[in-house]
Design a protein that fits this description.
Four copies of one chain form a homotetramer.
Chain A lengths: L7 E3 L8 H7 L11 H16 L4 E6 L2 H12 L5 E5 L3 H12 L3 E5 L9 H10 L5 E7 L1 E2 L4 E2 L2 H10 L5 E5 L18 E5 L10 E6 L1 H9 L9 H9 L9 H17 L1 H22 L2 E2 L11 E5 L6 H12 L1 E5 L8 E5 L6 H17 L8 H11 L9
Parallel strand pairs in A: 1-13, 3-4, 3-5, 5-8, 8-9
Antiparallel strand pairs in A: 2-10, 6-7, 9-10, 11-12, 12-14, 13-14
Helix pairs in contact in A: 1-9, 2-9, 5-6, 10-12, 10-13, 11-12, 12-13
C-alpha cells in the first residue's frame, strides 16, 4: 500500500539529494574526450579545491568513499609500512582493517567511541617512535558512527610538537561541506571524502586531497596500484580530463552541488549544521535520553547518535519509526549495534525538515514503547527560535 | 543567498508535486493522433471516472480550473438563464461573477464564510421558484478560501425535496481526491475540478464530470461555445482521443496520479486528510487562535483557515514565515484579506510534513510577534499519536 | 516488443521537446501568488513579446491553440459581426467553423489548399464592403495542413489599400518561432499561437498578441467571455501575475524555450527552417513526388506536405513507416485525407535529424510499395552540403 | 551560439543514454541499508547474471571499467604471477600495462590491430608452458579501438586443447549487451565489463562475472586488495546488499537497462547491432575507404573503425564533423592515432539514427576535404532496406 508524502532520509548519509542535483545528473552523457568535457572536468576539480580549501591537489574517483580510503593508503605506503590510527568509532576501525588487509602495519590507539581523536595521546605515541617507523597518522574528522568530531588542527600541532615527519591523513567523508575543514591551513597531507554526504550527491564519487609532501612520498611508495594512482591523474587533470572514463553524470551533479554550496556560503552551511546539531541535542535532553558523544565541543553538526534506554532495541525502534512515520534513521554499528540510533541532519536540510525529523523520532519513541519524556520537539523548536541563524554574505 | 533544504508549499493548492508525477510530466511528447496515444487518453478518461465515482461523462480540458467553471455554465445555459448560487466564500463569489459576466442571471444566497452551503435555505428558495426559472443550483464543495465543506448529498436531497428540476452543479476543484466525493451516488449533474490540488499535478488541466441529464440539457442550451463544447468531445473521447490538441504531458502526470491514488486507496486518502485537518485544528486551538470554519463537521481536510488576532496582519505574518522558514502559506482573500492565513494540508502529504508545516507556523507566529500560546505543534503531535490512521486495503 | 532508439516525432507539431525544456517542466511547482513567481511571469510575458516582435500586448492562456483562436474572436467581436477568412487549408476551415459556431457571420474566400492567402482577392472583397460590415480579416500564417505560408505583410497592405478599418487577425500557431513573423512591423492586430510547435514545448499553453487598436475594439465587443477576457489579464500581468492559476510548469519550459531561441538567434532559427524545407523539397523532387504547396516562395520551412501517387494510401504508408522505422509523419486532413503525408521539420531540429527523417521516408516508401525513385536522401544531403547555413551572431 | 537539435554521440561508448534510464537515475537516493534496497540490489545482481548468461557469480563495483580490470587481476593473482595476453589493440595494451604496473608478469602476443585474438597462437604458447607458469589467458572480446571481435569460445577450446589450467579472463566492456556473450557456455572464468556501452548507462558502474574456479583461485591469491575483494561481496550480495556504499542511482538505471534489454530480447539486440555494423561497412566501401578490421567475420557490431586516406588527419575530420554536424565520432588511439576514426553504432540505436550518423560522416568527409566517393549513405540505406531485421519473440 502506497505511503503518501515524502520519505525522510535521515541517516547520516546518503543525504536526500536536492532536485537541482538530481536534474543535473539526469542530463545526457557527453564524450569525456571531447572539447565540451574540459569545462565539466575543470569546474569539478577546481571546485573541489575550494571545498577542501586547498591550492594543492584534488583527485576524483568513480568509486565509493571506501575507494578513496584505499587510494590514500596505496599511494603513500610501501608494503610493511606502519601507520598510527585512532579508534574514534566504527569507521576508524574499518579503515584500520583495510590498512591491515592491504599489508600495512597499523597501531590503533584505543578510544571509547564517545569523542574525537585525542591529540595528546597521538603526540605521546609519536614521541616514543624515535626511529620514525610511523609513516602516517590517520584520523577520522567526523566519525559517522558516533557523531563526534576530531580536532584536526590540534592533531597537526601534536605531530609537529613531537617533531615527527609522519603524514597527517584525514577521513572527512561525512564531514566535508557540512562542518569546517581547511586542508591547507590545518596542514593535512591526505584527505578522503565522498559524494553522498555534505556534497548532497548520490554515492559514486570519491575524493582525495593531497599535499605536495604526500605527492612526493607517493613517488617512493611501492604498494601496487593502478586505478588509484595519483600520478596518472595529474597530467590529464590539468586540462580537465581523466586517465580513464570518469563518472560524467555524477560530475554534472557535483558541479551543481559546488555552485549550491557557494551560493549559500560555506560558513553559512557550517553554521546551519552546528545549529541543527544543537537543536537536536536539546530534543534528546528533553526526551531524557543520552547523546553518545560525551566530549563537549566535539558533538557533530552532521548527525547525532542517541543511546537507547537499557533493555530497549534501537533497531526495533528504527523499524517502527520507518513503518509508521516513513523516516529512515541510522543504525548503531558494531560495538554499539542496537544500542544507539543516529539522526542525520546533514546535506540540503533546513529548520522545518529538522522539526519533521525530530517529530518522527518523538512519535516513534512513543509508538515503540521506549521510555522517554515528551517535549523534545518543543525544546528543539525553542532552540531554533531563540537562536536564529546569523547569515553572512555568501562568497 | 540560497536557502538550504526543501521549500514547503503549504498553500491550499497547487500542492507540492510528487517526484513520480514530475518525472512522468518530463517524458517526451508523443503524436496525439498516433496509435500509442489512445492508451494515454483512455486511461486518463476512465481513471478520472473512478476518481469522480461516476459512470457517466468526464471531460478533460487543457485549461485552469476557471476554464472548467466556464465550461459547466456555457454548456448548460442559454443567455438570460438563471442560476442559484451559495456564497460559501471567495471562490463561490468568483463563480457567481463569472456567470454574471457570461450573461447568466444569478441569485446569490448570502453566507458568512464560516461554513458550507445550507441545504435548507436552498430548498426554501427553490420552493418559491414555482415557475422553475432557476436552471441550476451551484455550490462549492470545498471552499478553498475558508476551509469549509458543503454537504453535497444534502443539497441534492433539498432540491429533490423541493421537487425542483434544477441541475446540481458542484465546484470540487480543491476537494476532489482529498475528501469524499461521489458524483453518481450524490446525484450531481455537473462537476468542476482541476489538476493542482488533490490530483497532485501542476496546474493546467481541468475537468467536468457530467450527468446524462446535463448532457441532454446541453443539447438545448444556446450559450455560444466551441472550445468548451462537451458534444465535440464525446466522439473522439470514445477511443481515447480529443477534438483538439490535448495537454499530453500533463496527461502523463494525471495517469501517474490516478495510479498513486488507487495504490493508496481513496478511502485512505480521505482519512489521511481528515486526520491532518483535525491535528491542525488541535494546533490552532493550542495556539489560542480561531479556525475560520465555525460549523462543526464542515471543517475541511484540505486546508485550515486561521483567524489572526485583531490588529495583526496575516500577510505580514506570512511574509515573515516565508522569509525565515521557507514555507508558503495561503493568504486571506477579499472579505478576509489580511485577516486569515490558510494552511494547506492536501495532496501528497504525510505526518512529518504536517509537523514541519505546523512548526513553521508556530515559529513564524513567534518571529512575527503575533500573540499566541506555544504548544500547538505539541498538541498536533499528541493528536497524531493518539489517533493513528486505520488503513484499509487499497482498491 | 520494445523498439530500440529514439522515436522520430516528425509530425508538424508537437515537435520533439528538447531535454532542457523537459527538465525545466519537471521542476517543482511554486506558489503562483508568491514573490518568486513574478520573475517567472514577467520573463514569459516579456519574452513572448520578443518572439512576436511586438511592444504591444501579449496574453498567455493555459489552453491549447484552439483556445487562443476562440480568445481572438470573443474579445473582439459582438454577436452577428462579420469576419472575412481565407481558405488556405484545414486549419483555416476549422477557424471558420469555430467563428460560425460562436455566432459570428463569416465569409470564406475559397482557396485551393496549394498556397497562402491571396492579398489581391482580400483587397477586392474589402473594396466591395462599402458599409464596412467586415470587422476583421482572418488568415493563417503557416497553414499546417498544406505547408504553405501566407504573405502577412501583403495582406496588411491590401487592407490598407482598400482603406478598410477591419482588424488583421493571424493564426501563426505553427509559424511562430520557426518562420519570420513581425507583429508590429506588419501591422497585425490579433495573433494566435501555441506552445507545441516552434516554441518546442508540450501542448498546453496558447498565446494572443494584441494591438492597442484591438484592445480598444475589445472594450466595445459584446461576445460573452470570461476565461479568455484580455482586460482581466492586463492588470495582474503588469507585475508578472495572472487572474487565475497559470500553467506554472509549462511557463518554466516556455522561459527556457525563449532563452534557447535567443541563444541561437531568431534569424538563425528562421534560416535553419528555410534550409531544411528546401532540402526536403529537393528530396521530394528526387523521389518523383509532388509537394502540395504549388506557389513558389510560399513553401513552408515548418513542414512539407507531399502528394501520394494516385491510388496509393498516405495513411497506409505512414503506418508502415511508423511500424518499421519508428517515425511519426503527419496525416492528410479533410480534403486531402489519405492523399498527402506531411513531414515536420520544425522545432529543435538539425541536419542529421533531417537526414534521419528523410531516410525514414525513403525507406518507408520502398517498404510500403509506393512508386518512387530512390535518391531523395542523397539529393537532400547534396543540398545541405552545397548550402551551408550562414549563421549570424545571436541577439 | 546554440546549436539546434540533438547531439549525436557516436563514439563507441559512452553511448547516448535513453530517457527511461536518465529518468531512473534521477530518482531520489534511498538508504542502502534499509529494507527497500534489497529489491534494488537483488534485481541488479540477478539481472546482470542474465546478461552475462551465467549462474555463477557477478560483482558490481562503483567504478569505471578500468576498476573491473584491476579487480579481475588482484583477486586472482599473486605478486609475480604470469598472464598471457593478446594484443588486439589499444585496450588490450592498456590492460597489459596495468597488469605490469600491479607487479604481474605479462607475456603479450603481438597482434596487427586488424582482428581478434588468435586461438591457435594462444594454444601454441600454452603448449610450450610445460611447467604451467601462466596463470591466466586474458583477451579482449570486443576491441573498442579497432572494431574487431575475438572468438572467445575458440580461445577456451584452445586452452583446453593445450590441456592447460590457465584461467580465461575476458574484457567485454564494450561487447556486453551488444554482441553475443555466454559466460557459462563458453567457459569463461573472469569477465570484465562496464556500464556505459551496451548497457546504455552513464559511466560509473563496472562488473566482474566470476566462475567457481576463479573464486577458488582467489582464496589463494595474495595480491593486496580490499576495495575490489570478491569474497567481501559474496555475503552481503546474497540478500541484495553491498559491503560498502553502492552507486544507488546508477543501480536504478541499471535495473531499467536490464528490463529494456529483455523487453527487446537479447537476440534481437545482437541482430540489430550486427545489421547496423554491416550497413556501416557498406557505407565505408561505397565511400572508397577501408575498414580497419581486416578479418572477415570478426567485424564488430558495436563500432566500425575507418582508415583515413593517407595524408589526411582523422582528428581534423572529426573536429570538422563535430563543428558542422554536431556529431561526436571516436578517435584513433595510440598506434592508429589520427589515422582512423571510429563510428559507434551501439546502445539504444535504430535505423534512422544510423542514417543520421552516416549522413554526418559523409557530409563531414566533404566538408573536411577528405577524398571519397559519395553514395555511402545510399549504400547503407539499400542494405537496411534489403535486409530487414527478423525479430524473434523477446524473453
Amino acid at each position: 500500500m502506497r505511503q503518501a508524502g515524502r520519505h525522510f532520509l535521515q541517516i547520516p548519509g546518503p543525504s536526500a539529494v536536492p532536485d537541482r542535483i538530481l536534474s543535473a545528473i539526469g542530463r545526457q552523457t557527453i564524450d569525456h574526450r571531447g572539447p565540451d568535457f574540459a569545462e565539466v572536468g575543470l569546474k569539478a576539480l577546481n571546485g573541489m579545491k575550494s571545498i577542501f580549501k586547498t591550492e594543492q591537489h584534488v583527485f576524483i574517483y568513480p568509486s565509493s568513499g571506501t575507494g578513496a580510503w584505499e587510494a590514500a593508503l596505496v599511494n603513500t605506503m610501501s608494503p610493511g609500512d606502519k601507520v598510527l590510527m585512532f579508534e574514534t568509532g566504527h569507521f576508524a576501525t574499518l579503515w584500520n582493517k583495510m590498512a591491515t588487509k592491504l599489508g600495512i602495519r597499523t597501531e590503533f590507539l584505543e578510544g571509547d567511541w564517545r569523542g574525537g581523536a585525542e591529540p595528546d595521546r597521538i603526540e605521546a605515541r609519536l614521541r616514543e617512535d624515535t626511529n620514525q617507523e610511523i609513516k602516517a597518522v590517520c584520523v577520522v574528522h567526523n566519525e559517522t558512527s558516533t557523531g563526534s568530531v576530531s580536532p584536526i588542527a590540534d592533531v597537526r600541532r601534536a605531530i609537529d610538537a613531537a617533531g615527527h615527519p609522519a603524514l597527517l591523513m584525514v577521513d572527512t567523508i561525512s564531514g566535508l561541506a557540512s562542518i569546517d575543514f581547511r586542508f591547507d591551513e590545518w596542514g593535512v597531507d591526505v584527505c578522503v571524502s565522498g559524494s553522498q554526504k555534505g556534497l548532497m550527491l548520490p554515492p559514486g564519487l570519491s575524493f582525495n586531497a593531497v599535499s605536495e609532501r604526500a605527492m612526493k612520498m607517493a613517488e617512493r611508495a611501492t604498494m601496487p596500484r593502478s586505478y588509484w594512482d595519483w600520478h596518472d591523474m595529474v597530467g590529464p587533470n590539468e586540462t580537465g580530463y581523466f586517465p580513464y572514463t570518469p563518472g560524467t553524470n555524477l560530475l554534472y551533479g557535483l558541479n551543481e552541488a559546488i555552485d549550491m554550496l557557494h551560493e549559500e556560503g560555506l560558513d553559512n552551511v557550517f553554521a546551519r549544521h552546528a545549529r541543527h546539531g544543537a537543536a537536536t541535542r536539546a530534543a534528546v535532553r528533553a526526551w531524557g535520553l543520552e547523546v553518545l558523544c560525551a566530549r563537549q565541543g566535539q558533538e557533530s553538526g552532521v548527525l547525532t547518535a542517541v543511546l537507547m534506554p537499557r533493555g530497549h532495541s534501537a533497531d526495533a525502534f528504527r523499524a517502527t519509526t520507518l513503518q509508521h512515520y516513513d523516516i529512515s534513521l541510522g543504525n548503531g554499528l558494531s560495538k554499539v549495534a542496537d544500542k544507539v540510533f543516529r539522526i542525520g541532519h546533514l546535506g540540503d536540510f533546513n529548520d522545518l525538515m529538522l522539526m519533521a525529523t525530530l517529530s518522527g523520532v518523538e512519535m516513534g519513541l512513543a509508538k515503540a514503547g521506549v521510555p522517554h519524556e515528551s517535549g523534545g520537539v518543543q525544546a528543539a523548536m525553542e532552540h531554533l527560535k531563540d537562536n536564529p541563524q546569523a547569515r553572512v554574505a555568501a562568497e
